[in-house]
Batch of 2 targets.
Target 1
Amino acid sequence: MTETVQRTLVVLKPDAVQRGISVDILARFERRGLRLAALRLMKVERAMAERHYAVHKGKFFYDDLVKTISASPVVAAVLEGPNAIAVVRMMVGSTRPHEAAPGTIRGDYALVGLRNLVHASDAPETAAEEIKLWFPDGVVSYTRDIERWMTDEGAPS
Ligand code: CDP
Ligand code: MG
């Protein structure tokens, strides 16, 4: 069976950068087999934060969320691979870190919702919109030789 190759947006939030674990978190995804398709360090302006979190407008945590993500630089990345959206969400763990399983990023490193380290796209439609918002100049398409040992490409021979 051939799995669907997807792209997903990951944002290592200000708490990850301030704690000095943003690249360690990114390394988990890369080690899993996902391919980096785009990467940038940036300070998020309020307008950008509002667009990114537009789906949460009106919720009780919206203002805190917008302030929190624009408080200090973030690392944004596009990751690519078979079922990338679900794979990354599983690795990130539950939104509320006290409910996140050990072994997940939030379950291993976070305690509270506003300091849960990572944003990850939750569906193909939101991933496409978010990638356009964070990487308006596009992403980089390429393959790695190792891919055939981690994906359906080249298997089972
Ligand atoms: O990030 P995730 O997709 O897991 O959760 P979300 O429902 O899309 O919410 C976005 C972010 O809002 C979360 O990652 C939390 O930082 C924050 N949040 C919160 O602080 N308290 C909640 N009850 C829900 C979300
Ligand atoms: Mg979300």
Note: The longest strand covers residues 74-82.
Target 2
Amino acid sequence: MADTGTNFIHNMIDKDLEEGRYEGLPVCTRFPPEPNGYLHIGHAKAICLNFTTAQKYGGKCNLRYDDTNPVKEDVEYVGSIEGDVRWLGFQWDGLYFASDYFDQMYECAVELIRRGKAYVCEYSAEEIKNTRGTLTEPGKASPWRDRSVEENLRLFEEMKDGKYADGEKVLRAKIDMASPNINMRDPVIYRIAHASHHNTGDKWCIYPMYDYAHPLEDAIEKVTHSICTLEFEDHRPLYDWVLQALDWPMPPRQIEFARLNLTNTVMSKRYLKALVEDGSVEGWDDPRMPTIAGIRRRGYTPEAVRDFCERIGVAKANSTVDVSLLEHCVREDLKTRVESRMVILDPLKVVITNYPEDAAEEVEIENNKENPELGSRKVPFSRELYVEREDFMEIPEKKYFRLFPGNEVRFKGAYFITCNEVVKDEEGNITELRCTYDPETRSGGSFEGRKVKGTIHWVDAGTAVPLTVRVYSYLFTEGEDGRYALNPDSEKLCRALGEASLAEVSPGERFQFFRQGYYIADEKLCTAEEKVFNQIVDLKSSWKK
Ligand code: ATP
Ligand code: MG
């Protein structure tokens, strides 16, 4: 694996190591997804960062399901998350569920009460909000703030035993109602929720809040560096408070970095889930989706995604990365890896009138111009062929070097061909081009006469393989208000024709379609009978350094 270089996070870790803050402990990070949806490309950023940081220090990285919220989680997502992390090329050290720590979290809350650092409050969520104060005014103390330890212990136990309804009581940390940081104004750390949990069933009817649970999860696993996104920066004092209040030895350090935002991409599990549920996309793994399952099916490679995550680096300020950089990384990775094939997306028939009726031959074409190691293949050529409709113009515009009446072009790997006649149907649609070839000009031969300015691709009509090709544009486009909206034209289906060798493809195989772009045989839909390809990325890069 490539060296990840250094960044401000590594600098902080270096300093901790120098100062011996974690004497005897290996550097330990974690990726802590909430199992409430499929992972997206933003999560890939966090996965790469956590795993490569652990690798750099010869440490550990855990995969931990942050499943402390009983109502939103689903086991379907658990399997998908593990598959996605493995697909990216990483293997976790420990695999944990935060809900396995509910007993310890409860014990810690009892300990906070004993230490006079937590109390049971009767306020509703609304009242807590209304007494929290503002950025300029301190909050008001709860009338229950100074209950005795004994009373708090009894009430908290009763909360656990199911004596109260949802919302009737909460456990709050006793910190500082005048703190300039509103997160520190006696935050709620336990709430009542009579809800079944996918892991613990009906054992609990009180559940810990994220800001209380997360530092404990990290600390229990002996995580040393808890890397999270910037919106948790204001929560760090609370993270530290929880562990300090319990005198936790060698508490983990929370470090924040900027979350990844991409142009033309919406990265919110909730929003993506809505698209799946209302049928706007085929599923979580629709090739247009920014989910890891989607980009995998789209044909992106884990190498390209990791390269992308490395190139964007880690920042301390939020910004939006141009999605064309990700596409650039995909092209760079596929460029020398995949073989080329000729495919016609919108076929127009060509008849070579001076080519013998019953003759046929094979021409040899290199599989990858930039990588001779990939060898070559034989492609059938005969009197009837197809070309791309776009490669012909009856009245050529300026600098058009492809087919037009009277013009000669090279058919890739074969001959010079001249277009002589255009055949049309009754409505005036072009149905066929009648052309001639020059037998002297066969590719790879010794012809050194005139030159032509254009080379186009073609397929042999007799042996062509029908393909369904899905050509994509962005799933989201920017509306006038600057917000992203679903693009109604993000998928175009082409009834295409491919060269004979494409009869043999297996699902998941990638190719460059000559002059068109990179394509993958769809994992799910490509069968022996029906060949379905997804466009991975087009050939041209719009990304500028
Ligand atoms: P979403 O809002 O899409 O549901 P989330 O942050 O709620 O995302 P979690 O499952 O809680 O998703 O996230 C797991 C980890 O991935 C967290 O550490 C989170 O900070 C990180 N993460 C999520 N989105 C991004 C992103 N866009 N860029 C970088 N890291 C991210
Ligand atoms: Mg979340």
Note: Residues 41-56 form the longest helix (16 residues).
